[in-house]
Description:
The structure holds two protein chains of two kinds.
Chain A: H1 10-18, H2 24-37, E1 44-47, H3 49-64, E2 76-80, H4 107-114, E3 118-123, H5 157-164, E4 170-175, H6 181-187, E5 190-193, E6 213-218, H7 221-231, H8 249-252, E7 261-264, H9 266-269, H10 275-290, E8 294-297, H11 306-321, H12 339-350, H13 353-366, H14 372-395, E9 398-402, H15 418-422, H16 429-433, E10 438-445, E11 452-458, H17 464-478, H18 485-488
Helix pairs in contact in A: 2-3, 5-6, 10-17, 11-13, 11-14
Chain B: E1 5-16, H1 55-67, E2 71-72, E3 75-76, E4 79-82, E5 92-95, E6 102-103, E7 106-111, E8 114-127, E9 131-134, E10 142-145, E11 152-158, H2 165-181, E12 194-204, E13 214-219, H3 222-241, E14 249-254, E15 259-265, E16 275-276, E17 283-284, H4 287-296, H5 301-311, H6 316-322, H7 326-342, H8 347-362, E18 367-369, E19 372-374, H9 379-391, H10 396-409, H11 413-420, H12 429-442, H13 444-451, H14 458-468, H15 475-486
Parallel strand pairs in B: 13-14
Antiparallel strand pairs in B: 1-11, 1-12, 2-6, 3-17, 4-5, 4-16, 6-8, 7-8, 8-11, 9-10, 12-13, 14-15, 18-19
The structure holds zinc ion (ZN).
Amino acid sequence: MSEPSPVAGVVDTAEAVRAGEQRAEDVVAQHVARAKARADLNALLHLDEERALSAARAVDERRARGEALGALAGVPVVLKDNLCLDGVPTTCASRILEGYRPPYNADCVERLIAEDAVIIAKANMDEFAMGSSNENSAFGPVKNPWDLTRAPGGSSGGSAAATAAGIGAVALGSDTGGSVRQPGAFCGVVAIKPTYGRLSRYGLIAFASSLDQVGTMTRDVRDGARVLRVLAGHDKRDATSAVEPVPDYEAACAAPVSGLRVGVLRAALDQVEDPDVRAAFSAAEQSLRDAGCDIVDIELPHAHHGVSVYYLVATAEASSNLARFDGMRFGLRVTGDDLLSTYERTRAQGFGPEVKRRIMLGTYALSSGYYDAFYIKAQKVRTLMVQDYQRAFERCDAVLSPTAPTPAFGLGEKTGDPLAMYLADIFTLPPSLAGLPAMHVPVGLGQASGLPVGVQVTTPAFTEVRMLQLAAALEARSGYVCAPPALFGGAG
Amino acid sequence: MARAYETVIGLEVHAQLKTATKLFCGCPTDYGAAPNTQVCPVCLGLPGALPVPNERAMELAAIAGLALGCDVRSESRFDRKNYFYPDLSKGYQISQFEHPLNLGGHLTFLVGDQEKTVGLTRIHVEEDAAKNLHGAGGGAATVVDFNRGGTPLIEIVSEPDLRSAVEAEAYLRKLRDVLMFLGVNDGNLEEGSFRCDANVSVRPVGQEEFGTRTEIKNINSFKFVRQAIDYEVSRQVGVLESGGRVVQETRGWNDVTGKTFSQRSKEDAHDYRYFPDPDLPPIVFGAERIEALRKAAPKLPEQLRAEWTSEWGLTPYDAEVLTGHPAIAAYFGEVAGALDAGGREPRAEAGKRAANFIQAEVLRDVKTSGLDATFSVPAADVAELLSRVQAGTLTGKQGKQVFSEMASSGEGAEAVIARLGVQAPISDTGALEGDIRAIIAANPAQHEQYKAGKTKVLGFFVGQVMRVTKGAADPATVNALLERLLQE
Ligand SMILES: [Zn+2]
């Protein structure tokens, strides 16, 4: 586990291209070749080789003309398929959007391109970002590069698998209740969910608007920091995007962590049964202690309501957000005898079972007679959870927890039991509901499973700097390198 | 009919806010563009697009609220009203439900010569739907024009305080007037920028509780509102008198048959599943911003009329005519203001001068359409022209001639005067005295009458002098000279 990652990351690639040591076109060609070689992962829904190569050549030509290149020069990027890319199929892994090509770029896509990144592919995902295993894709499940019989996590499973397999230097995902962090944990990659409002949601196809944030997946923390700096900032096209200064996240990765107070949810930890997850957490806790952090026990008294609150709020918003997929203006249309039957047939054939389940749940939660008991009550508990964190952050600077209760589970293992699947998100939901920045940091491979394990770092709103600082310290002390054996050979 | 019934009416008016762009995107709101040319990902409800509130629309809605005595809330919110229809791009309409911008308020208006005040429940902001076109181009299909989709509206909801169709019409006319003077709405019923839904019920006179109401949707002329309510009242009375029950339902108005017809009963009513739109943070109006809007808000017709009759020398009739349209009122304001600023005569004289001239000359060929009006001569040019009359370098008659030439040629006063060679009025008593003496000598009978006390014949002599001098004599000089010479 001490050999360096065989595939260059964001910072190394960008610096090599900027310095003229490497051509963007060559970098992109290598990544495209790897993507093709690993079609078995089913991580990608659309690979646009020609477009990617010509974008890379344009970067090389600009350098040849003596122009200064951006912070992501020649960096190959994979986009989750719920991020709009002008003229390129964007499906949310749903039949209802099969063949749909948006006429505009998401804000984060514009920011990537402005810094000379090259988008190479669209990644598979759980349909409309609803799922924790990537088995809800209309275009088949994604396989975990560490073990092809296992799930990559979800909903950004394709993004996570691609990143772990060295396809792209960074993948963008979206995180509503853990959708970058949990697949990050399953695939052993760094996954950042920024503060709600830190990044623009413009062009991110909505699942649950009050929770959705674009997130990054990279093979190390510094790569994530660089991409985050490019993506962060106010966008006047998103009324919920924050007007907050964007600090130098990359510099934060080198800052010492001694003296920081790290909160630990001792009571919640006791309920984790998996020995690898427990061991990884203990190791992380010890390494922060060794780095000079103070470990304090904290409580989030309402955190155990996270799953209930999340599945009311998120499904309620989703039931409304997904109403626009009605077969009238874009995407699939299955014509019926009249307007109503056209709606019914289009949506019946266009949406998969999990999406339908959540639309039904959300419609119910908003219905007259149930609204107060479900939606309003859920919002009240959500407010209590926000207050829990406010109180906790009076005693600590960050919260350390596991990211997922288990390492990657097997494909098909939980598909019959939605509730068991929902519990895969118990640690990632509370920060999402509170709008806080949270990220997954891999710290090693589990002794029992041989699969990647890691921890989640959560900090107060708009303190990504501190979160990255702690994550970089954990990473440095773990010695973890993202090199799945199924990809690069070796013991596994 | 056996019993006497009382009519109870509440009105919901949808008025388009006069903004350049839509409520949640930058698309223009111009009427009449080719279908689906004023659209973008946001108003088409494309996946991933997000709404951003139009600040100007919120301000206009607050201005309306302030003028109508509403409580303008420091924090209001947008909700989603969820239902499926092809003219609704997102599958929900963004509207204000729980926390509207304006609460309460009232509108006072005249019904005949009786003043009536109607309470308002609320004024909230919402986006308009697109337009379904059935069988366009001769085909069987329904197509949708999204140009109108996302246009900002306010919905003004009245209390059930109206008691007749006549009152309802008077309320609507007054409301339209107020909104137009505020610059909030263009008052254009034909283009659908001012639309009305009427909630109508009847109850036996003396009964406390309201009868079952029906809602007549989307009536787009004052005449039809009156007709639809009258029809609906007699229909409901007929139902009750024949022992039936009025069904709570939504009804349409057919202006060809002159009847209302059933559209949707309460049983088919939607559950709109309102909830706060998570894409839109609360709209915040601080006390300072509200105060600034209050100060900057245009004056209402009754305020103008009060000022003009008390300070500017206008008769109530003049004031009424000149507040007939906001553009005309503004025109008068500009002309009178300029004349007053010249300081040549008291404000009341300047006001009267402007009012008389505008009513006699300018209003003849004014064309209004919505908030816009086309004048044959800009107000500034008329002000310039009248200031010459005021200064005595043009007679009133010359002023009218010059104006008529300005209107047809589009030239300014100075150019017309130069081209036509209009001479300044003769105010040289020496030059006029000879002419006047000759006229008096030629009309001894009238002269005798004058001397006998019939001073009205002065007008006859003035006319003679003007004829002889071809209107070029200064009237004040002529008057003074005549009065002196006729005494001789
Ligand atoms: Zn638009």
